Amino acid sequence: MALTIFCNTRVTPEAEEMLRAGTAGHRLIIPESATASVLAKGVSEIGLLEADVAFGQPDPHDCIRSPRLKWVEVSSAGYTRYDTPEFFGWMRSKTGVFTNVSSVFADPCAQHVLAMMLALGRQLLPSFRDQMTDQSWHYDERRYHSRLLTGQTVLMLGYGAIGRRLSPNSEVGGKKAGQIEQHMRGSDGADSNFGEVGIFHTKIRSMSGICFLSPPQASESKSTGFRAARPNTAPPRNTAARNVAGCR
């Protein structure tokens, strides 16, 4: 059965060619309003009301109004604008399918986090700044402020696809990140469960601690920091804290 597929994500010409080839035999609708941003909210489009499948960032209200729509695939890991009782109530009533692309971004974000952990520990950022400005040589300062990851405790706030991919129990960049004792709070490991915190005690040694944040976008996680996990407290001294939401 031929389907009508709505796509409001603007991709490269090469990717669009693959998309059209893969949907040959079906009707593909790409509106003029299509955008390359996976964060931009889609505008209302009449074509969505004719679709069986929607990919990109379709307008949630248009989705609910659509008489035929059965599958919505968003082009982002986050799905905050769809996470409403109205939207998922409508989806359940149609026994529809809603999917996202967390696995697409898991490797890039996990590798970005690992690179930042190493760069911070080895003082690469201040060293690069020196080389790009006065080209000074702070040998002693950089040497004695550098730290190994050996023995480090890594606190992950938001243990979704990124955190699981970075887990030293899986491979990042083709190499094991280290042996681990894993202690979890929570049971389902879902991206939406912000209350779950994965704590890893690595057998790699020295800094006081690293915290990285990859929570879902929600009211509970806005301005997330140590205060989200430990109310009325600041990050422990010498702890490096980074939010990885923008690295995708």
Notes on the protein architecture:
With 248 residues, this protein is α/β, with parallel strands linked by helices. The chain has two domains: 4-100, Rossmann fold; 105-247. The chain is 29% helix and 21% strand.
Summarize the structure.
The protein is of the alpha/beta class and 248 residues long.
Keywords:
single chain, 248 residues, alpha/beta, five-stranded parallel beta sheet, five-stranded mixed beta sheet, 29% helix, elongated
- Report the biggest beta sheet as strand number plus sense, adding barrel if it closes: 5 strands, parallel
Uncertain parts: 170-208, 223-241
Residue share in helix: 25-40%
Domain count, please report it.
Answer: 2
Q: Strand order of the main beta sheet, please?
A: 2-1-3-4-5
Overall mean pLDDT stands at: 76
Structural class: alpha/beta
Shape: elongated
Strand content: 15-25%
Helical segment count: 8
SSE layout and pairing:
Elements: E1 4-7, H1 13-22, E2 27-29, E3 53-56, H2 60-65, E4 71-74, H3 85-93, E5 97-99, H4 102-121, H5 124-132, H6 139-145, E6 149-150, E7 153-157, H7 161-166, E8 171-172, E9 175-176, E10 180-185, E11 197-202, E12 205-206, E13 210-213, H8 226-229, E14 240-243
Parallel strand pairs: 1-2, 1-3, 3-4, 4-5, 7-13, 13-14
Antiparallel strand pairs: 6-12, 7-11, 8-9, 10-11
